[in-house]
Specification:
The chain is α/β, with parallel strands linked by helices. It is built from 16 helices and twelve strands.
Length: 356
């Protein structure tokens, strides 16, 4: 009997020391990675310079979407990326209906836009040598029992983990690694394409993430080389680098089916972790999957593991955070830290882990 009680206590202690950490764009902001508002402008500047033919088509679609006269220049620093992506989804639907779509993974315009969004992110992402110390400290604080759910496309955390000698996994198979679950894809991911993505034609190293099987037939691959800047200089769009990014807008309802297994797994993760830290994640109107995921899980966290005292820490300086997260805050389980992510929040994470 005592052994059973001891075993239960040991398991409870293990759960208390494990966290679910949920990251949004605000997490990466201090590293200089642009938020959505400035990312589109940076991406379109590169797009126009390097691929003017396809850019002109996207630019014309933007004029239709935002009703901008032909004589005026589209100001990509003020138009909505979400609305543009939704409009491009409509264009792709027309192409699909007429048998004119470029390939199964998307239209030529959408694939090029994804490439240049990813390239703009990589141009802004610090190298391992220039990474702010705060992110190295954050990586050191992560342990193999932690689950990181991120909606960011950037590889900032991967670079930080590599820099401090910690291993990570994009799936849940390796219990000795930090679990890094990228629900909106990543700049260094791509879908398998049996027609164009043949081993004989690959110049980069690609490893399967491990999502295929069961209901998912198309594998996603990741390349560790794409965490470096060099390949982004030597490759063009519609080539080997074809970033798997779940774009904002209502077209994401189609994109997420390619990594649907990740949307199932996090619910399981909540059963084996304790405190939850939501860092820099705003709930935009088109984030219907994220909001639904939170609604389905966060108000009921105490029932997952059976270990009392669970807390949700929301770190977000946005004035709208109070209203956006009201459904969680009203449960009494959550605390809102209405400020930018900083080293003090890493210290808070460490304090709760050590106290467990």
């Amino acid at each position: 009997m005592n052994s059973e009680v001891g075993g239960t206590s040991s398991m409870d202690d293990h759960i208390r020391a494990s966290r679910t950490i949920i990251l949004g764009a605000g997490f990466s902001a201090a590293a200089g990675i642009p938020l959505t508002g400035t990312l589109l402008k940076a991406a379109m500047d590169i797009f126009a310079r390097e691929c003017p033919g396809v850019f002109s088509r996207v630019d014309n679609y933007a004029r239709e979407c935002f009703q901008i006269p032909e004589a005026d220049v589209v100001d990509y620093s003020v138009v909505s990326l979400s609305e543009l992506c939704t409009f491009l989804e409509y264009i792709e639907l027309k192409e699909f209906g007429g048998g004119e779509r470029f390939k199964s993974s998307g239209s030529r315009e959408k694939l090029c836009l994804k490439f240049y969004l990813a390239k703009a992110i990589m141009e802004a992402t610090p190298t391992a040598e220039s990474l702010p110390a705060m992110y190295l400290d954050f990586a050191r604080e992560l342990h193999e029992t932690d689950f990181v759910l991120t909606f960011n496309w950037d590889p900032l955390l991967e670079i930080a983990l590599d820099s401090v000698g910690k291993t990570y996994t994009y799936n849940f198979d390796n219990s000795q690694c930090v679990k890094l679950c990228k629900l909106h894809g990543s700049v260094n991911w791509r879908l398998d394409d049996s027609e164009l993505f043949k081993p004989a034609t690959r110049r980069l190293i690609w490893n399967p993430v491990g999502f295929s099987g069961g209901m998912l037939e198309t594998e996603i691959y990741h390349s560790p080389q794409l965490l470096q800047k060099a390949p982004w200089v030597s490759h063009s769009p519609l080539s080997e680098i074809e970033p798997f990014l779940v774009l904002p807008g209502y077209g994401k309802a189609f994109d997420v089916r390619s990594n649907a297994v990740l949307w199932y797994k996090p619910e399981w993760a909540f059963a084996f972790t304790h405190d939850v830290f939501i860092i820099g994640l705003s709930l935009a109107p088109d984030d219907f999957f994220i909001r639904s995921f939170f609604l389905s899980n966060l108000p009921h966290l105490e029932s997952y593991s059976g270990v009392p005292g669970r807390r949700i820490h929301i770190v977000n300086p946005d004035r709208s955070a109070l209203g956006n997260y009201e459904f969680v805050l009203s449960s009494g389980l959550a605390v809102l830290h209405q400020e930018p992510f900083s080293s003090k929040h890493i210290a808070l994470m460490r304090h709760h882990r050590v106290a467990a």
